[in-house]
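Example with several molecule types.
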Amino acid sequence: MDALLSQYIDAYYLHLMVLIGINIILVLGLNIITGVTGQLSMGHAGFMSIGAYTAAIMSVHLAFPFWASLLAGATAAAAFGFLLGLPTLRLEGDYLAMVTIGFAEIVRVFFLNFEPGGKAVGLSGIPEHTGFTLVWTMALLIIVLNAKLLNSRIGRSFYAIRENEIAAEAAGINTTRLKVLAFMIGASLAGLGGGLYAHYMTYIAPQDFGFMKSIELLNMVVLGGMGSIPGAILGTIVLTLAPEMLRIVAEYRLLFYGALLVLLMIFRPNGLLGDIRWYDFKKRWFNKGVKTWPS
Amino acid sequence: MSSKLKFRLALVLCCVMMMSIFAGCGGSESAPDDSGSQGEVIKLGFLGALTGSVANYGIPGKKGMEMAIEEINASGGILGHQVEGVYDDNKGETTDITAIAKKYITRDKVVAMVGDPCTGLTQVAGRIAQDNEVVILSAGATGTGVVEIGDYVYRNTLLDIYAAPAVVDWMVNQKGWKNIAMITSLNNGYSTALTPVFKAAIADKGGNIVLDESINDGETDFTAQVTKLKNAGADVLVFTGYYTEAALIMNEVQKQNLDIVLVGGDGLYGQDLATLGKSAVEEKVIFYCGFSSDQPGPETAAFLESYRAKYNEEPDMFSAQYYDAVYILKKAMEDANSTDPKVFKTELAKLKDYPGVSGNTTFGPDREPIKSPVCLITIKDGKFALLEKIPVNVE
Amino acid sequence: MFLEQLVNGLTLGSSYALIALGYTMVYGIIQLINFAHGEIYMFGAFAGLFLVTLFDVNIFVALLGAMAFCMVLGMLVERVAYRPLRGKSSRLSALISAIGVSIFLSTLMALLRGTNTTRYPEILKIHTYHLGPLELSSLQIIILLVSALLMIGLQLMIQRTRLGKAMRACSQDLDAASLMGINPNRIISYTFAIGSALAAAGGVMVGIYYNAVWPYMGTMAGLKAFSAAVLGGIGSVPGAMIGGLTLGVLEILGVAYLSSSYKDAIAFGILILVLIVRPQGIMGQKITKKV
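Resulting structure tokens for the full complex:
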């Protein structure tokens, strides 16, 4: 399938599409934590690197099959999501953001000192198992599962926690457990995305998962519209392609990218798609009478 | 503006954004594929960071490469073809270099790529180049596992595994500096790869390491490390990173009234070492390098002169290596009488005693570069000065 | 050695504290993590450099000039990137806008000055004083003194002046304050100006102390200062000072007695532990949630 595609689409575009697919998986994970449940996480790249390194080391040093390492990466990230989710019991808002930043930095420093991971030189020679077909099959699967989850009892409880934690608790939602659950799901998706990334790029290094990577993922969630799956997807597509398109302005690229972020937020303060869900799309396209767009 | 209108506007904008990026798709496929015909431009792709925190090492490389291409074009090009450089910025990131390498190969149809300064990124681009049968000549990757990728992957660098032991031998046995303090830059791949090479050589030549500290590139506060150094009783300090941090460490050393010499690799070759360090580095920094701007050969002298004239600044190691890389590619293409990477890559492997500006280069039987002799450089009056030439032992 | 390392830590910490003050003041009033603040600090350092190299002024003129320049810059950033968003969007949108400004400013400086590190000229002759086992440089003394003066001045301004009173009112309740005849836009603008001026002072002093400035110096410093502000209790002015000094000392002592390879991990690890034990930071006030 991948071989067939590469005959018709040139490698550069295929690469960008794979990148979008991987980013969608990562961003949907962060969307559950930050967008849906409202817990500001600025350390998503930390979970991603745990998944990437776990999967890569199992493939390279321990010769595990690809699927097993991918699964192990996601599990390891979820375990850390659980550990990091615990302090959220007590911390709120920006204190939580600080803990997630600190966590991601600690993970980065750990991998900078981690001999089997090649330290700053990075880990190369990871077998290439990921291609367009696999990434997009997984991405689509995760989009569907995500939509199902957010429409379920648990998903609605997540939204409730974001809107008003006290009210949610009063309504009988076990907020503590659900917040930890949100962290675990988000982290496992980050780990999965990290594993896919490692087996696609064939090379990972600690600097790939720095603070700016976390920020980039957060940008995608917020730009798309907090808590909205179509929004997260759109935000991912726009912000993955924007830096590539801006190559025409050469060294002014990041200047334009920064200005673009500001302008997009000024003109679409609630994100490109606001808080629109699949559900709203259905309503809009199948029932012309209902108007649900937020202003 | 009504909300509906606003939303539609946003959608249209997104569509335009997406279309503009996919617009080139058809164009590149229908481009003529007869890259061998006379008069066709030869394209070389540049790999390196032009923005971001590692752009210090990409920008000089780009300048060196641009200058070489200009000179070649002025003197009739390669085999009658004009040469064009393609310069995309990779910010020093994996996703970017993958995108760029693929873009160079599929859209720009380059015959060779020059770069990247960093080993890990070179490996990523190297694998893409190998799969697509395009030559890559790195001008900075010093770590292991680069040319092993395949016969399209080369590098033009001074290999530390040959040079560092010679320098350690000079330090321990000629200077009698036996107690050695080491500082590594933790987030710098070059530095973390060079440190074990130095450590092995120190153990081998009978020195002992009295202090093993680390810093990070981009930081400016090294007070704690230097205070520790002051109390460690070291004869010499070995720092394996780049010139910026070396200068800042020496500034702090001077501030704390410490008298110690810093020894390092060719990553210290950059005029910034002297401009940032001023009196703190004067005759206090010694490093090895493939060439010396103090007593240059004729090629190096010409290079230095035209580089200063063109950019009004001193070249560093990266500009020299990128410059050489372009000429090495030119030589290979002319020897093979072909601009097809499949053909000229075999000539590239035969390179012997090429008198480059960054040193005399030979690709050995394993296609690894060998540069001999190695120059020991220090700083006198704010300029690089040759201290000694030491021969390199290659078995 | 311990005392020397302690002084190293306090010097580093006072630069964190000066930057952290700006974070905490802005946060106290509009609950925005101003991610562009690190870049303001960087611009301050470069403004000082510009004054010193072109006009050969002394350290205090450079300091004041840089502070004035960053006041304007801070107000400009607030006007262009944050005010249009205020009231219309969530806090996170403003955060993304701040990140955009941060990327824009650091790239701008990289384009203007190149990405190389620039040497800060010696404005001061450095003397070393020996106090028993302790070695102190005149630079360290000046930095500690100037930071202390600025922090005391800020504290006096907030507690004693009309403007300070208005700022405190705004941080308690923006809507109620505007009903009392305070123009919140103007107060927010002033807050940005004062915070930016302090960051600029930090930038100039760091430039002089380490002899080096470069366009990406703001990112890590900003992150550290933000951590310091949170550690001290975000929104609290004395908290930012204590948080900054604590973080600086922790970092240096981490290198001195534990491991320089894990320096940042140690600092952040302790930070997380502190927050788990005291979720509102060292000086932060516990806010009772109202239903």
